[in-house]
Amino acid sequence: MSRVTISEVAPRDGLQSIGPFVATQTKIALVNALHAAGVRRMEVGSFVSPKAVPQMADTGEVLQAALRLPGLESTVLVPNRRGFEMARQAGAHRVGLFMSVTESHNKANVNRTCAESFADLAGIVRDAVAAGMKVRFNLSCCFHCPFEGVVPERAALDWVERAIALDPWMEVAICDTTGNAAPDQVARVVGHAVRAWTAPDGSSRIAFHGHDTYGMGVANVAAAWNAGCTVIDSAAGGLGGCPFAPGATGNVATEDVAWLFRRMGVATGLDWSKLLAAADLAAAVPGSLPGGRMRAVPAARRAA
Ligand code: ZN
Could you write out the three-class secondary structure of 162-191? Predict the structure, then answer.
């Protein structure tokens, strides 16, 4: 049986844009429930300025709780060197870096050019690897940019190639930040990357991160999987919608992705009923904007 790795992002991507502060104990309860459901990889928070993203101010505490869970690889997303130093000192297993492949989105998001971001991140990759940490390099807006529209595939792949060249083992995520990728586009871009760039032992280095804004989240995950991608990001309860962006929905839901793989005979290592319990918990977080389909399908709920 083939096997996919689900990297859960609800505690970070799912929660970070929620307005009211989510209690630390609620965040930890969600992390625990996801771990109990079999999640073994999770983005648990972000070491970012609490002024910029108040919701992530307690990432240190959430991370310490996550580090106590057996077998769980904890990732912390960081925007810069300061965040990286915090992640290293706190003992995160993996540091998540990010930049956009389009100039206007990178400017809007981190107020830098792509070249400036890349130069900084390259230095952090070097130091993180030297410190024995795993690295995830996230490339945002690989398919569609809110300012520039559909991204030329060659332009996205140029950035994937540059990121890949930073370290022979580092994982690179091709991200559909707006949820406006099309499955054929995902198949071509992800497929090219999977075929072109592998680790020294031949294993894949490519991950896919998708949102469900246009209802194509699961189709895009299927396209990425069929193109050879074996690491998929998703968020329990489909969290990740931004209350300030009307119509914007969240990450593709972990329970929808789990159902997809279950129906395709691909192992996820997830316990279906415990995953639904975790997804219900995620969807019940005050102020959240949940998505996903499977929580609302009675027959699927009974199919424990
Ligand atoms: Zn995202």
Answer: HHHCCCCCCEEEEEECCCCCCHHHHHHHHH
Residues assigned a catalytic role = 242
Give me ligand 1 centre to Cα 216, in Å.
14
pTM score, whole prediction: 0.97
* Gyration radius (Cα) of the chain, Å: 18
The tally of domains found in the chain comes to 1
pLDDT tens-place string over residues 24-76: 999 999 999 999 999 999 999 999 999 999 999 999 999 999 999 999 999 99
What would the two tokens of residue 99 be? 């930049």
Residue 210 Cα to ligand 1 middle (Å)? 7
CA of 65 to the centre of ligand 1 (A): 23
Q: What separation in Å is there between the alpha carbon of 177 and the centre of ligand 1? A: 5
Q: What's the pLDDT tens digit per position in 72-114? A: 999 999 999 999 999 999 999 999 999 999 999 999 989 999 9
Q: How many CB atoms sit inside 10 A of residue 195's CB?
A: 12
Specify the CATH number for the domain of residue 227: 3.20.20.70
Neighbours of 200 (CB within 10 A): 7
First to last CA, the chain: 20
Q: Range of 164's domain?
A: 5-303
Q: Give 233 Cα–ligand 1 centroid separation in angstroms.
A: 9
